[in-house]
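Fill in residues.
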């Protein structure tokens, strides 16, 4: 799906008005899309380091990347568990299907942003979360209601050959997460 995606083509052909790199602490870092191991490493697409022979610093990077992905997975998981339209293929014309997806995304954002509806729409037990003291990941209830909906791991989708520049960007994020950008509780997860 990614290789045929309009977003990928637009990024590859510099058709988007993406922000320039920004200073994060003392480092100049590009804006990137957070991905899992199934995706190729690109200068704009960050994925974890391979699990073999990981140093502590690389484990920290993988952990921090997975925390960012958890936010995305919670959003999609909650959407698909709450909005029944996602429980089967959408059998509408493409233009109408796009409107349905946009409408549910807007409603999701409104319900999450409003303090009076947030805990009703998405109580804490629905979402994946972390015990920052122990480093344990607690899976949200949305995962039980989404079994069989096709949001499980998709496996590797393309060659994992990557450019030197993409590797250098990932290494820069790794250095940042282990240096000035570190947070105290990241060690709880890595040291458990």
């Amino acid at each position: 799906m990614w290789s045929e995606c309009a977003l990928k083509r637009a990024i590859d052909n510099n058709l988007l008005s993406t922000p320039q790199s920004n200073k994060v602490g003392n480092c100049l870092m590009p804006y990137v899309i957070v991905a899992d191991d199934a995706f190729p490493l690109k200068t704009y697409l960050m994925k974890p380091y391979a699990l073999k022979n990981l140093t502590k610093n690389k484990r920290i990077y993988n952990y921090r990347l997975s925390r960012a992905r958890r936010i995305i997975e919670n959003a999609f998981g909650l959407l698909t568990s709450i909005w029944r339209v996602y429980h089967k293929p959408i059998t509408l014309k493409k233009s109408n299907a796009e409107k349905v997806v946009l409408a549910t995304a807007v409603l999701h954002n409104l319900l999450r942003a409003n303090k009076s509806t947030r805990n009703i729409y998405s109580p804490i037990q629905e979402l994946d979360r972390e015990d920052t003291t122990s480093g344990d990941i607690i899976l949200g209830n949305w995962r039980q209601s989404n079994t069989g909906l096709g949001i499980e791991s998709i496996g590797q989708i393309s060659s994992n050959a990557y450019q030197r520049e993409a590797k250098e960007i990932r290494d820069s994020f790794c250095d940042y997460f282990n240096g000035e950008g570190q947070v105290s509780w990241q060690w709880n997860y890595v040291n458990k």
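Confidence is low (pLDDT under 50) at residues 150-154.
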